[in-house]
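I am still getting used to backbone structure tokens and would like to learn alongside you. Please make up or recall a protein chain and show it to me in full. Would you write everything just below, so we can both look at the same thing?
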Amino acid sequence: MSRIDDLPPLREVIAAHGLSARKELGQNFILDLNLTARIARMAGDLAQSDIIEIGPGPGGLTRGLLAEGARRVLAIEKDARCLPALEQIAAHYPGRLGVVAGDALTVDPLAHGLVPPIRICANLPYNVGTELLVRWLTPPQWPPFWTSLTLMFQREVAERITARPGGRAYGRLAILAQWRAEARIVMDLPPQAFTPPPKVSSAVVHLTALPAPRHPADPALLSRVVAAAFGQRRKMLRASLRGLHPAIEDLLHEAGIPPTERAEQVPLEGFCALARALAAAL
């Protein structure tokens, strides 16, 4: 394996700092620096962007981002064992890597002097990945602070983010992602790419924020409609949505949706139309 910088190989870093992956932290490390550099390139023009990385661990993707020219990287790491290894990377790239010790669910990255455009690129810990994505897709205001998200997920989650109507993978996550962003799978990784190997395959999803949602709808109402519809996805919509409004069948007709349809058959624009009809009826 060729080297992307003059720092020690990741296996040596892990051994030197005792960084065995911890299951409770959702850790699976990628040791191939050529692979982490390839993931970094999927994030776009790094030289013109500040990057947020969540859960860098021993710094494989961090080094890929910096070697590929990231203007600045802010790495948020919960595992204190990893901090000395990350500080070693920071010393090698003066002024370009900031390390924040803390939980990504509670740390505000915007409090650390980031300059737009801001991209998020991360091999997300499996146990918090979906929650973080939903937060990034549902800010109080749109457009969001980020320009793009380049994120590693379990392959099953990646398929749910990019799913189209008609399949079992299509659901709330697809609606949230595709309403306000362009989402596509850009890379697949087998279990053998990680140490330790997870039991499932993984994939990198790249999401680009749209300047405005694809279809008009109140975010809170759209979220209510989608949650109710997919919360009982085996039922017809006239049954799964009846708690939203007494005249739900009329509202479904108004939105152009047959009341006998099931949630997985309704495209994004249909849910948005129903949210608008519900807003007018409340």
About this structure: Residues 268-281 form the longest helix (14 residues). The two ends are 62 Å apart (CA to CA).
